[in-house]
Amino acid sequence: xxxxxxxxxxxxxxxxxxxxxxxxxxxxxxxxxxxxxxxxxxxxxxxxxxxxxxxxxxxxxxxxxxxxxxxxxxxxxxxxxxxxxxxxxxxxxxxxxxxxxxxxxxxxxxxxxxxxxxxxxxxxxxxxxxxxxxxxxxxx
Length: 140
Description:
The protein is mostly helical. It is 76% helix and 0% strand.
């Protein structure tokens, strides 16, 4: 796992080069976001029980909830944050990325490392969101 974390910055920078422009475009279009989140749900179902990919699912679930809350108007995010969240999900659902996902196990290493890097980059925003989300549960 240490090597994966060491490579996460490289994979994250490469993912931004390859997909940030597309992610930003998707972030600005509700229909595109809806399609992307649907693809993410399908992919999550395929890997939910896979032991080596399972730990990457929780950050993606948080990313999805943040996007849904933003799009509903319940919890606003900056365009930069929204773009990075979309980038993480886009990279997760794209089968041909830095390491193609058809390569068993190793094909998901870059996906997981990009998700980890985005999570670390947005750690403060994620913590604020999770606190907000918990406060909403208490008020229902």
